[in-house]
């Protein structure tokens, strides 16, 4: 008994926090610290809202804390291969060195992403079902769960105070599944019996009653589409990372002996990887993409992609802007890819384009649930693991709140349920929550597709100004020695005013520029950068007074040696 008491009182500190994914959709990253060991769970991206994008392709986490403490990172766990879970990993690995643990198919996707970003030297370890590994100073238990991506797993990290368990993105599905999708909850029961300090569970489906299964399936719905369109060419859209759904579509085509064309190279590469894992497709049903133009009936064209690009591809097909496809009014377009946040505008534009060409659209995804746990799924995991504390993660605040209410219904007190913000740290000692304080000031990192990082949001702000209030550029030439004006000012505007109706404005701003320079030279206070800033301030105030706009003002002073 004395040994047990001593073990209970060991001075071990556990800190749990998120660098993204709380009160937002995407950008998921959880951090578990046990004394000096840091464990990172997932590294996802978030797509910007339509109104906020302004050229920004996606958003990643603020990695400052991890960069400062990279020597303590024991491992990074990527539970599956979706963008909101692994999309930020290349950008993280450009700043740190750490071992990565993931599933077989996700490992292939990570290797591909690293080759694209020219990242070398990363060690990626493949997780098998029911793996137990010592990583850092602690045992880590990986357990398989059912999700839309094969090989998805949950994670349990051991500590003296009990396990810290992240259940992964999972659903309860007891049907006959391929081994790469089959979950196993016996491990969760074992963890519960051994003692779980904290359970972290995603919250996206917490508002839904019942179980997610069987309402996540589309195979029978798509089979009915094939029955009703026996002689039509069918285009079907699906996200490349929705592997479970791709396999359902293929299974329906096999059932009805419909030949298939895998339209994108990315999709063909994925099919090759799946076949290596044991998923078989009759090769006589696979047609070469070059046959799309000639095969106007019977064939199913599976078009994959990510986010906006997928729906833009469908728009281009409908508008006959794709060289290898002639769109026909008898063609049927089936949407099997849900409209995720950030793509709504592009989706509506695609619908308009297809209807204008008299095409048919069938949205297969209506009333089909995404493969995230609903209320009863979440309750089951709480019941099996019996955690002392419960932390809802991954979702907007209303999702986190509804998830917390599920734990309340199961008898947990408010003191056992922890709702965090990004950067807020829950600290545990001796199996007790000791503090829950905001410790990290985080900034979104914008990436615009050209790998320009914008920590402070300056680029994004500039784009916002340009899109709404326009720009004014003023150029003037000075003698480098005397600082006398020798040419200009030349004034150019874009998106601000119609010059013919407001010539007085260009005259006035040119005069302001001249007077500011002459005054600075006269007072012997002229300095190029300082004078440009003064010109910018004066002209900005003048333009706001005249136009009620705040354009970007760019003064240029060229000092010329004559």
UniProtKB/TrEMBL annotation:
It comes from the Bacteria. GO terms for molecular function: exonuclease activity; metal ion binding; RNA binding. Residues 26-216 form the Metallo-beta-lactamase domain. SMART domains: Lactamase_B. Pfam families: Lactamase_B (PF00753), RNase_J_b_CASP (PF22505), RNase_J_C (PF17770). It is an enzyme of class 3 (hydrolase). Keywords: Cytoplasm, Exonuclease, Hydrolase, Nuclease, RNA-binding. Its EC number is 3.1.-.-. Gene3D superfamilies: 3.10.20.580, Metallo-hydrolase/oxidoreductase, Ribonuclease Z/Hydroxyacylglutathione hydrolase-like. PANTHER family: RIBONUCLEASE J. This is Ribonuclease J. It comes from Faecalicoccus acidiformans.
């Amino acid at each position: 008994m004395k040994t047990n008491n001593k073990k209970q009182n060991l001075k071990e500190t556990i800190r749990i926090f998120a660098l993204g994914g709380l009160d937002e959709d995407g950008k998921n990253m959880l951090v578990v610290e046990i004394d000096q060991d840091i464990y990172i769970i997932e590294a996802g991206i978030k797509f910007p809202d339509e109104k906020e994008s302004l050229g920004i392709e996606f958003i990643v986490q603020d990695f400052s804390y991890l960069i400062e403490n990279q020597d303590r990172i024991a491992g990074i766990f990527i539970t599956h291969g979706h963008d909101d879970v692994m999309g930020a990993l290349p950008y993280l690995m450009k700043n740190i060195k750490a071992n990565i643990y993931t599933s077989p198919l996700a490992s292939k996707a990570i290797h591909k992403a690293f080759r694209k970003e020219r990242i070398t030297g990363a060690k990626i370890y493949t997780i098998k079902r029911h793996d137990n590994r010592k990583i850092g100073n602690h045992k880590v238990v990986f357990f398989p769960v059912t999700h839309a991506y094969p090989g998805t797993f949950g994670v349990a990290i051991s500590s003296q105070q009990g396990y810290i368990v992240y259940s992964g993105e999972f659903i309860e599905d007891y049907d006959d599944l391929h081994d790469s999708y089959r979950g196993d909850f016996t491990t969760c029961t074992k963890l519960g019996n051994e003692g779980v300090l904290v359970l972290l569970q995603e919250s996206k489906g917490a508002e839904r009653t019942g179980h997610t299964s069987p309402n996540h399936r589309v195979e029978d719905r798509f089979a009915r589409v094939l029955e009703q369109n026996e002689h039509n060419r069918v285009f079907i859209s699906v996200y490349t990372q929705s592997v479970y759904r791709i396999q359902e579509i293929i299974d329906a085509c096999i059932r009805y002996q419909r030949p298939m064309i895998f339209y994108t190279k990315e999709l063909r590469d994925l099919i090759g990887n799946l076949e290596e894992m044991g998923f078989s497709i009759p090769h006589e049903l696979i047609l070469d993409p070059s046959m799309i133009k000639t095969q106007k009936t019977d064939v199913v064209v599976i078009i994959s992609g990510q986010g906006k690009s997928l729906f833009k591809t469908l728009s281009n097909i409908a508008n006959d802007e794709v060289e290898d496809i002639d769109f026909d009014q008898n063609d049927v377009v089936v949407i099997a890819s849900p409209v995720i946040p950030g793509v709504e505008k592009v989706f509506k534009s695609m619908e308009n384009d297809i209807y204008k060409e008299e095409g048919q659209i069938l949205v297969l995804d209506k009333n089909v649930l995404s493969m995230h746990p609903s209320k009863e799924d979440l309750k089951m995991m709480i019941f099996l693991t019996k955690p002392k504390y419960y932390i809802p993660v991954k979702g907007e605040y209303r999702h986190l709140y509804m998830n917390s209410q599920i734990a309340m219904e199961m008898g947990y007190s408010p003191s056992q349920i922890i709702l965090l913000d990004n950067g807020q740290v829950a600290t545990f000692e001796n199996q007790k929550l000791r503090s829950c304080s905001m410790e990290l000031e985080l900034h979104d990192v914008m990436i615009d597709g050209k790998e320009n990082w914008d920590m402070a949001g300056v680029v994004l702000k500039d784009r916002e100004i340009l899109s709404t209030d326009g720009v004014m550029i003023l150029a003037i030439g000075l003698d480098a020695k005397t600082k006398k004006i020798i040419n200009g000012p030349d004034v150019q505007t874009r998106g601000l005013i119609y010059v013919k109706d407001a010539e007085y404005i260009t005259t006035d701003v040119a005069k302001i520029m001249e007077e500011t320079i002459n005054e600075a030279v006269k007072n012997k206070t002229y300095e190029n950068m300082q004078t440009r800033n003064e010109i910018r301030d004066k002209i900005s105030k003048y333009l706001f007074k005249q136009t009620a706009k705040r354009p970007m003002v760019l003064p240029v002073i060229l000092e010329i040696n004559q």
